[in-house]
Every structure is written in structure tokens, then in C-alpha cells.
Design brief:
alpha/beta, Ribosomal Protein S5, domain 2, Alpha-Beta Plaits, TIM Barrel, 9-stranded mixed sheet
């Protein structure tokens, strides 16, 4: 009855269905042996990792903080030369010279069998590897233990999903690593075992045409890792799978061992295990400010985490059996530093785990809130706990070089500690990107003491947990001497993707740096503006109307765009241009748009340059219209944009108006910025002509350096009717771009340009500009700043940094409340000045400005 049918994941499929599946897999890069004329080629990268806090305790259920870092192991799968000598064999090899290649073949039942004659010392016959047997005992395959475990897990998973005919395909697997020292070949301690496991799982997912979520990839890698080493916590696997910073709590190891036993006996399978909730397992991504910079120093002495963990556990067990729980009895003769043996209060391993949990939770909160003093305090506390553990167990965790590494950082006020199991390997310090002199001082001191600073950053996160550097790595790896046409096309696609991801990374960095730069007090000049009080206001509060008519609202008819929305704004301020162009900033734009819809405030998008270059990023901006269908929305483009692209931007948002931003200073300081601005005036003239013909008004705005009356006059000559002065005092993009530079060469340009108040005053003095409508933005922090700007001649006031800070730290509801409160408070201030309308405010109020000529 079931002839020519195959079992597939609890169901059945006939030969035609299997054939269709094989064809689909072929197109995804998993070729059959018969298609030898075409080379399939896929690759996947996995980053390294560093433990930040929670070492040792994480093995016994306490939380830990782990970060993925931008050194990579790469797994490449291809089908080149399979069975070229008459044997149907695949090759597993590594760029690590001391690891000789392995050759494997498929058994009758599809299992992986190592062929011993191919460079396998001590393997004289085929060494059959069943699905869930240990690989530790086989001497010849030990260097590839984690690779083989990952292959076997994926083999079992694909078999359950698609049957043996799919799972049993042969392939070559090539491993290359950046996690070791290039000169000596010694390991840095960046989690090479976990990285090679994750990289292999990812590569085989691509090979078999599987699209799995990050949690499932992580679980597959955890299963493979547990097959090799049952005692591991899995924190390294989780961080490498998810990318960025994570807060991690280990799964129940006894439970997983029992589950694997059920699979081996045939009473369960991998698919069921992936779908189960794993007891105790917790993985939370931490939203750590990108202004924080992780510094890594390598002591030159590799350490074995497994041996150190075993030593600590044995020492803790011995200590628990002694009547004396204090450190002095346990440290005698241990060879520990004398400073480590000065503890006299009783301290147990249980104490260590409990106190480590408290420390890690506090540190996680401090990292997310950018609380530098608290971060330093928790680094010091974690270090102290590890030193107590060292004395308790007689295990040297903080070596003399690691102590020196920490002292060098402490000497300039930067917190530092050991990373991971200690005993050598790396130490870490945590600075900010603004502390360039201190960072260079630390690196110099480390080098003087024989400690190698590693050029390492925490990886960025994308939707699947991949990091941006994976794409960059892919470009290097695809430069093989013999590439098929398929691979060459892939290379071009990777290059285009890399450019897109670079743009996305920059947008994410801008948001993080802008938020880190935020201060409650802004140097925008508003504090110098003083109103003369009106003791007899002659107005009732409910008579005050803060609405404004802007952008020639009385003269422009309705159009096909969404600008049928009135240009009579209910509020005299608006949410100014911020962001867009990445997955993370899409969420910010969606939140801002929902706030705008709820409050009736106008809103501007960030620059649409990214969407104009890459259609896949369009949704990161268009979400502002979908979440705010009836609101007043302004699109934003650079002055380097063509008129046609400007209209495209307007159409993406169905925008009511177009902002054209001027940012020459930012572009020049930006490492990858523009360097030629000769076409700006022509472009602006063309954009004004084309957009206003479509009844879309144009606002030309600066982005933080302010405008002079001369600037506005030149814009007026090419047809511009509205400008936003965008003065210094708010988000400082010159400083942001300088922070992104390797050496921060342009610190002295941080105060370039005019403040918002200086710009308003310079324009106010010029009678020729009375017909130009002026918007004001830059460093607006309070409702009083809004009223001050209106009194100095602004028709409307843009707010960005203040609202972004509220959104990111308190959420949408709080921002809605803040905007509502601003409206009420502006009305109160206007009543105090005796003004019922903004027009009266501009014409009748006596304003004094101190210390500005």
C-alpha cells in the first residue's frame, strides 16, 4: 500500500512530492550528485562571544550577560568534486593548519560515517556516527566534534521533516576562523566551539533550503553543543545565535539529557524537542546604548573554560565538605595572590550564585539605562565576587596579567574585569565612544604590559539575529579562485546588500548616539530670551488659541495627495525629522506616527535617501502614513536629491509637504559622506518648481548649524517660501559623525554654526525676508522654548530630540501625555503674556535677549 511513499515528519508524501521538494532544494543551493555540472555554494557566519558578567554562576541557574563580537567563524557548504575518486564522500576541513581534513560518507540508513584513511590519525576503519552518540571518545574526529554534532542534529531534523532522500545528501563543509591569534594560532577565548556549532547549523539550514527563526537555530545549536559537552551553560551559543547583548539563563541540563535519551530510543524526535518550552531557559536581548564601547585585551595565555569550571565545581564541593567555610582555610597553598586571601567572612558557593544574580540584574538595568556610575559599580562587584570564588575554590581566575589589565583601565577611570572563566584569555573594559583619549591611554598601557588590544566590537542585531558584519565577511569568502556563475551573482547581491545594511547601521547608530547625546538643558540660546511680564493680561485662558496657519494654507487648493488635510495646525509645534531606513527605526517611526495621530500634531519623517536607494526600506517610512492616515505628514530628502526622486519621496508617504535638509557640515565629517555640494541650489530650485506644481509646499531646513539672513535670501531667490533655521543646540550631527570616525578628528567643530536663537535674530533684522515663512528647530526642550521661538518670528516650531528621548525611555503613552501637556502649558504662557493667538504673540510681546548682539 505504501510503495513509493516516504515518511516525512509524521505524514507521508509520494515520489512526485519528493521530486518537487528536491527541485526546490536544488534551486536553493542543495544540488544532487547528478547535477555535477553546477556547483552549489552557500555560506554562513557566526560571531564570537565574550561574557560580560555572571561567569560560573550561569552554569548553576543564575543569569549572565553575554555579548556577541565581530570576530567570525564561517562555514561554507558546497558540492565540488564529490566522489571524484570513485567514492561517494564529502570532505570536512578547516583553515586551522593543525586540523587535518576528514572524509565522510553516508551509511545505508543515511548516518554519517567517517572514512578513517583520509588524514584521520588512529582511525583505520569507518567510524560510524549514530544520531545521538557521543563524539568525545573518538580521537580522530575530536577537532571536529562540534561540527559533526551539528551535522548530525541537522541530519536528524531534515530526515524528520523531509525524509532520508533529502537528509542523506553529501556535501563538503569548509570551516574558517577569525577567533584565533593569526601569528601563534592560540585561541583568544571568544567561544570558538559555540561559534562553529552555530555557523554549521546556519550553513546547513541554507543548504537544505530551510528558513528557521533565531530561537530554533539557537535550540538546534544548543542540542549539538550538549551532545559534545553536557556541562556547558549554553550562554555562548545563545549570544552567538542572537547577536548583540543578551541576558541569559541556562536551560535545565538534566531535562535536556533526558529528552535526548528519548530521541535516541525513538520515543521522541528533534522537531518535538524544538517545539517544547525548555525549562528555565531565558534569553532576553538587552537594548544597550551603542555609545558604550567594549574594550578587549588578550593576555596571550589561552585558558580552558571547561577545566576551570570543573576546578571551581570541585573546589566548591570540597569547600562545602569542610567545616570551615571561610576563605583562609581554602586558599592555603593555592598559589593565589595574597590580595585574594584576605576575606574572613564565611562565603559559600551558594552565596556566590545568589549575589552574582543580583549583580547581573543590576548591571543589565544599568547598561540599558546608560547609567555609567552604576555600570562601574557592578563591574567592581562582579570582580569582587569572582575573587571570593577564586579563594573559596583554590582556582586562579584573575591572573597577574588580568589584574594588570584591570589596573590600567582603572587608572583612567574606566571599569574593567575578567571575561569568561578567566585563568588567562581576555579581560574587558567598558568605556564610551566619547572617551577617545582614555581609550587610547588604556590600549597603550596594555601594550606596554604585554597585553594585546583586540579590535573588537559588539555585533549589531538584525531581524534573524544575524549581524551586519556577516555580509561583509561573505564578500571576502566569495572571492575564491573558481566561482560558478551562480556564486558570482550571489557575490553581487551580497555587495548590494552590504551597502544597504551599511546605511541601516548608520541610521541605527544615529538614533543611539542622538539619545546618548541628549541633555535636559540645551545650548540653543533660548535661556537668553526673556519676556517682559504682563501684570494685566486682559485675557481668559479658554480664549487662547495656539493654532497656526502655515505653508500658504489659504492659497493652495486640495490636491490628489493626502494634503487635503488642512494647513491650519492645531498646535504651533510639530514632531521634526528624525529617522527611518532600518528595521529598528521603522518601529520608532510607527510609534511617532501613532502619537501624532492621537494628538493631532504634524510630523516629519527622517531623510528618505535610504528608501530612494533601496525599495525594501520603503516600509520603514511609509508606516508613518499607514499609522497616521489623516494627519499632516512631511517627507524629507537631502538637497542632493533630484526633483523626480523628491516626488517619489512625497508619494511614498503621500506627504502633505516636503522638507529639504541642508547638512554640509554633517556630510563632510561623516566618514562616508558627500563631498560635493555644487548642485544643491539647482536641485532646490527644481524641487520647489516640481513640488509646488503638485500643490506640495517645500520647506528647506538646516540640521543643526543654523541659517543666516544671507542663506535665507539666497533660498528666496530660487523660489523657496519657507525655511526651518535648524539651529545649533539640539541633536549635534557633527558630533555624532565625529564619534563614528576612527580617531574623532573633528572635535573642534562641535560648536559649528549659529544657535536657533541667533539664527532667528539675524533673520528678524532683515526687512527683505518678511515674506519668507520661518520655522524654528534645534534644542527645543520646553513649552516656554516654543513660545520664545514664536515670539522671535517663527511660524511653527520643530521638536525632535526631546520627543525621541521620551519615546525611547518612557514609551508612546508618556509621549502623548507630554505633547498634551505642552499644548496646555503653551496656552498658559500665552495667557500670561496677554495673547489670544500666535499672531498677537509675534506682534505685541516685548522680548529681551541677553548677551547676544
Amino acid at each position: 500500500m505504501y510503495k513509493n511513499w516516504y515518511e516525512v515528519g509524521g505524514g507521508i508524501m509520494n515520489e512526485n512530492m519528493v521530486g518537487n521538494l528536491l527541485e526546490k532544494l536544488d534551486s536553493a543551493g542543495a544540488t544532487t550528485k547528478d547535477s555535477s555540472e553546477r556547483t552549489a555554494y552557500v555560506r554562513a557566519c557566526a560571531p564570537g562571544k565574550l561574557y560580560v558578567a555572571g561567569e560560573y554562576a550561569v552554569v548553576h541557574g543564575s543569569a549572565a550577560i553575554v555579548a556577541a563580537v565581530n570576530r567570525y567563524i564561517t562555514a561554507v557548504v558546497d558540492s565540488e568534486n564529490l566522489g571524484e575518486d570513485g567514492k561517494c564522500c564529502g570532505i570536512i576541513d578547516s583553515n586551522t593548519k593543525k586540523y587535518e581534513p576528514l572524509r565522510y560518507m553516508r551509511g545505508v540508513d543515511g548516518d554519517i560515517e567517517i572514512v578513517g584513511e583520509y588524514g584521520s590519525k588512529g582511525c583505520n576503519s569507518a567510524d560510524s556516527i549514530n544520531v545521538f552518540t557521543s563524539v568525545e571518545s573518538s580521537q580522530c574526529i575530536q577537532p571536529y566534534a562540534y561540527v559533526l554534532a551539528a551535522m548530525r542534529v541537522m541530519n536528524a531534523y531534515v530526515y524528520e521533516k523531509y525524509g532520508q532522500s533529502v537528509a542523506a545528501r553529501l556535501y563538503n563543509l569548509h570551516i574558517s576562523s577569525e577567533l584565533d591569534d593569526a601569528e601563534s594560532g592560540q585561541k583568544y577565548g571568544l567561544g570558538s566551539s559555540a561559534a562553529v556549532t552555530v555557523a554549521t547549523v546556519r550553513a546547513l539550514c541554507q543548504w537544505y533550503g530551510l528558513s528557521l527563526s533565531t530561537p530554533r537555530i539557537c535550540k538546534l545549536a544548543l542540542i549539538a553543543s550538549a551532545m559534545v559537552k553536557k556541562s556547558g551553560s549554553g550562554g555562548d551559543v545563545a549570544a552567538i545565535s542572537y547577536g548583540g547583548w543578551i541576558l541569559y539563563r541556562a536551560y535545565d541540563r538534566n531535562w535536556l539529557e533526558a529528552e535526548l535519551t528519548l530521541i535516541q530510543s525513538g520515543d521522541s524526535n528533534v522537531c518535538l524537542l524544538l517545539n517544547k518550552k525548555w525549562p528555565r531557559l531565558e534569553i532576553k536581548r538587552l537594548k544597550v546604548h551603542s555609545a558604550l564601547k567594549l574594550l578587549v585585551g588578550w593576555t596571550g595565555s589561552p585558558a580552558s573554560s571547561a577545566k576551570l569550571v570543573s576546578s571551581v565545581e570541585n573546589g566548591a564541593h570540597v569547600s562545602a565538605g569542610n567545616s570551615a567555610g571561610n576563605s583562609e582555610s581554602n586558599s592555603a597553598g593555592s598559589g593565589l595572590d595574597k590580595n585574594f586571601s584576605s576575606y574572613t567572612e564565611p562565603f559559600t558557593y551558594e552565596d556566590f550564585c545568589v549575589q552574582s544574580e543580583i549583580c547581573v540584574q543590576k548591571l543589565a538595568k544599568s547598561l540599558e539605562n546608560f547609567e555609567l556610575d552604576d555600570i562601574a559599580a557592578e563591574f567592581a562587584q562582579n570582580r569582587e565576587l569572582l575573587r571570593k570564588l577564586s579563594v573559596l575554590t583554590g582556582t586562579v581566575i584573575e591572573t597577574q596579567k588580568l589584574t594588570q589589565l584591570i589596573k590600567d583601565a582603572d587608572s583612567v577611570g574606566i571599569p574593567a574585569k575578567t571575561s569568561g572563566a578567566g585563568g588567562g584569555d581576555c579581560g574587558i573594559a567598558l568605556a564610551t565612544i566619547y572617551e577617545k583619549d582614555r581609550i587610547e591611554s588604556i590600549k597603550s598601557a596594555w601594550q606596554n604590559h604585554g597585553i594585546k588590544p583586540l579590535n573588537i566590537e559588539v555585533t549589531k542585531i538584525f531581524g534573524t539575529g544575524e549581524s551586519s558584519e556577516n555580509i561583509t565577511m561573505g564578500k571576502k569568502l566569495l572571492q575564491k579562485s573558481q566561482l560558478s556563475q551562480t556564486s558570482l551573482r550571489s557575490s553581487r547581491l551580497l555587495q548590494e546588500s552590504s551597502q544597504s545594511l551599511t546605511m541601516q547601521n548608520r541610521k541605527d547608530e544615529h538614533i543611539a548616539l542622538a539619545d546618548a547625546q541628549y541633555k535636559t538643558f540645551a545650548c540653543s540660546g533660548f535661556d537668553t530670551v526673556q519676556f517682559m511680564p504682563n501684570a494685566l493680561p486682559q485675557v481668559a485662558l479658554d480664549e487662547v488659541n495656539p493654532s497656526v496657519c502655515v505653508l500658504g494654507s489659504d492659497s493652495l487648493p486640495n490636491t490628489s495627495h493626502a494634503d487635503a488635510a488642512p494647513r491650519n495646525w492645531r498646535l504651533p509645534f510639530y514632531i521634526n525629522a528624525m529617522t527611518g531606513g532600518s528595521l529598528a527605526t521603522k518601529n520608532i517611526n510607527a510609534s511617532l506616527a501613532r502619537v501624532a495621530a492621537k494628538t493631532g500634531v504634524a510630523i516629519a519623517s527622517g531623510s528618505l535617501s535610504a528608501a530612494l536607494r533601496d525599495d525594501t526600506l520603503t516600509s520603514t517610512f511609509s508606516v508613518m502614513r499607514s499609522e497616521n492616515p489623516n494627519g499632516f505628514v512631511m517627507a524629507n530628502v537631502s538637497a542632493g536629491t533630484s526633483a523626480d526622486d523628491a516626488l517619489r519621496a512625497v508619494n511614498i508617504l503621500q506627504a502633505n509637504a516636503l522638507q529639504v535638509h541642508l547638512n554640509a557640515a554633517q556630510e563632510l565629517v561623516m566618514p562616508e559622506g558627500d563631498r560635493d555640494f555644487r548642485g544643491w541650489m539647482h536641485n532646490i530650485e527644481q524641487m520647489v518648481s516640481v513640488c509646488e506644481a503638485q500643490q506640495v509646499p517645500v520647506i528647506v531646513k538646516e540640521t543643526g548649524c543654523g541659517m543666516t539672513a544671507k542663506d535665507v535670501q539666497r533660498l528666496q531667490e530660487v523660489g523657496v517660501h519657507t525655511v526651518d533655521v535648524g539651529g545649533r543646540g539640539g541633536t549635534n550631527f557633527v558630533a555624532i559623525e565625529n564619534a563614528r570616525r576612527l580617531h574623532g578628528d573633528y572635535d573642534y567643530l562641535a560648536n559649528w554654526g549659529l544657535t536657533t536663537v541667533e539664527s532667528l535674530l539675524d533673520i528678524r533684522k532683515c526687512e527683505m525676508l518678511k515674506s519668507v515663512e520661518i520655522f524654528a528647530s534645534g534644542g527645543v526642550r520646553t513649552p516656554l522654548d516654543v513660545v520664545r521661538a514664536l515670539a522671535l518670528g517663527a511660524s511653527a516650531v520643530g521638536v525632535a530630540g526631546e520627543f525621541l528621548h521620551t519615546l525611547m525611555h518612557q514609551g508612546e503613552d508618556e509621549l502623548v501625555q507630554q505633547i498634551t501637556a505642552w499644548k496646555e502649558q503653551i496656552c498658559v504662557i500665552m495667557a500670561l503674556l496677554g495673547c489670544k493667538t500666535v499672531k498677537e504673540l509675534r506682534e505685541n510681546v516685548d522680548v529681551r535677549v541677553r548677551d547676544i548682539v
